[in-house]
Design goal:
By secondary structure, the protein is an alpha+beta fold. The chain has a domain at 6-198 and 259-309. The protein is 36% helix and 17% strand. It is built from 17 helices and 13 strands. It has helices at residues 8-12, 39-42, 50-58, 67-72, 95-105, 133-137, 153-158, 170-179, 201-211, 248-251, 257-260, 291-298, 316-327, 334-347, 352-373, 378-381, 384-390; strands spanning 77-83, 111-117, 125-130, 163-168, 187-192, 218-223, 228-233, 238-242, 272-275, 284-288, 304-308, 311-312, 350-351. An eight-stranded mixed β-sheet has the order 3-2-4-5-9-10-1-11. Strands 6-7-8 form a three-stranded antiparallel β-sheet. The longest helix has 22 residues, at 352-373. The protein binds flavin-adenine dinucleotide and iron/sulfur cluster. Residues 90-97, 114-115, 125, 139-145, 147, 149, 167-169, 193-196, 198, 222, 274-277, 284-285 line the site of flavin-adenine dinucleotide (FAD).
Length: 398
């Protein structure tokens, strides 16, 4: 077990806000702690090691010859689910918060790492270790900004916690897995969400102001499976903006460079993943990666309805066409964007095929980004599964 004293050397290395990944830093929080000592091995943007960490977390790495494994990572089971009694104000139906509450109440864990918001700003993330269900529920709903979740790592040792649940996105979980054995925990559970196109708080403001008609009243938003961004406003109204009508020329620099170079959309290293993009519209998508994930899902089985995941349509043409359109920052007139949204919703990819559409579109874009901005990183930073996915498409030369 690691003691606080064994980190003394690391403490000496903690120079305030040093970020070795520089502009690629996703502000995961590791470098705010004395665990910065491990940053060269642990940082998702300095040392891509997903296959090795999959083997440690799940007992095996993904099989690239199996399409579902290649796209979604190691898993035992995938289902679509909804809470029978949704949590008011959660991002979807609140399956993440419910699992976390059950784990605390049943005594499986003593604390839950999750993200509340500051009093002043509903979108400013504030990572905490929740000790009660009320504290977990205060963290419901996405804070759609880079969040320094791992900045609480020092508190784990200081408060002598031994059983912990961490909720987080891929880059946070990669760094967490890399330092897991240093944390002195008896048991660590990891509940992940997929994540893509995240932004700084300033970037979020620009996105809201560029895309929504009422940026100040947005309480949450999601890039939905019906090819529209749904903004929920304070008065409960929903504003829908078609993806194809987004002002991509203005938004091109909004997404954080870390997210433009990320290939862990599906949170490969979590025990259980809860998202939406592999499920039909209105449903959450659950992926059980290992036995710990199965144990976590079992806790809420009586509170959710489930159905099998489906896969319909063919994404390939739409992805290929979107590559040069995104690259050149083309924005369609709103009437054309709406029409295209309606057509593609009727005949376009659904269920797992929609998830593949989204993964393909982001991986091809991100591959080009790394190739152009960090060519020296391309070979090691892009995992083999992502290279295989990208190789299905023709990319512009430069
Ligand atoms: P809730 O019960 O509302 O709980 C939400 C949990 O998210 C809370 O526990 C909170 O601690 C945590 N959280 C909030 N903000 C952050 C943050 N910034 N970083 C880390 N953890 C956070 N799913 C997809 O299928 N496709 C996507 O493209 C996708 N993009 C996402 C992008 C971001 C930035 C985030 C945070 C999530 C994304 N998700 C995506 C997951 C999805 O939006 C829902 O979070 C998930 O389905 C859980 O819904 P819920 O109602 O069960 O969550
Ligand atoms: Fe440090 Fe995390 Fe930034 Fe990497 S992503 S430099 S580990 S804070």
């Amino acid at each position: 077990m690691t003691s606080i004293h064994s980190h003394n050397k690391a403490k000496a290395l903690k120079p305030g806000s040093r970020r070795p990944a520089k502009e690629l830093c996703s502000e995961c929080g590791l470098c705010d702690t004395y665990y910065i000592h491990y940053v060269k091995e642990a940082c998702a943007f300095l040392n891509q090691q997903i296959a090795e960490l999959e083997t440690i977390a799940h007992g095996k790495s993904r099989n690239l010859d199996d399409e579902n494994d290649c796209y979604f990572g190691v898993h035992q089971e995938m289902i679509a689910a909804q809470k029978k009694a949704p949590i008011e104000g959660a991002q979807w139906t609140g399956i993440v918060s419910t699992i976390a509450c059950e784990m605390l109440e049943k005594g499986l864990v003593e604390g839950v790492v999750c993200v509340q918001n500051t009093k002043e700003d509903r979108f400013q993330p504030m990572p905490v270790i929740a000790r009660t269900s009320d504290e977990v529920l205060a963290a419901k709903v996405n804070k759609p900004t880079l969040s320094p979740n791992l900045s609480i790592l020092e508190q784990i040792e200081q408060s002598n916690l031994k059983r912990l649940l961490v909720i987080g996105v891929g880059c946070q979980i990669q760094a967490l897995r890399a330092v897991e054995k240093e944390l002195g925990l008896e048991k660590l559970y990891v509940l992940g969400t997929p994540c893509v196109d995240n932004v700084t708080r300033e970037g979020l403001q620009k996105f809201l102001e560029t895309t929504s008609q009422s940026p100040d009243t947005v309480v949450h938003y999601e890039f939905m499976q019906d090819f529209r961004v749904h903004f929920k406003h304070e008065d409960g109204s929903i504003e829908k903006v078609p993806f194809f009508g987004l002002k991509t020329n203005k938004l091109k620099d909004v997404f954080a460079p870390s997210c433009m170079s990320c290939f862990d959309y599906v949170n490969s290293l979590a025990d259980l993943v809860v998202g939406y993009m592999g499920a039909e519209f209105g449903w959450q998508w659950i992926m059980v990666r290992n036995d710990k994930g199965k144990e976590m899902l079992a806790l809420v089985e009586d509170q959710i309805k489930t159905k099998p995941v489906i896969s319909q349509g063919n994404r390939k043409q739409a992805v290929q066409q979107s590559i040069p359109a995104y690259d050149k920052g083309v924005t369609l007139p709103m009437w054309a964007a709406k029409l295209m949204g309606v057509v593609i919703e009727r005949v376009g990819p659904k269920g797992l095929e929609y998830a593949r559409f989204s993964i393909d579109s982001h991986f091809t874009r991100n591959y080009l980004y790394v190739k152009r901005h960090h060519p020296e990183k391309l070979e090691n930073h892009v995992p083999d599964y992502a290279k295989k996915i990208v190789s299905q498409y023709q990319l512009p030369d430069q």
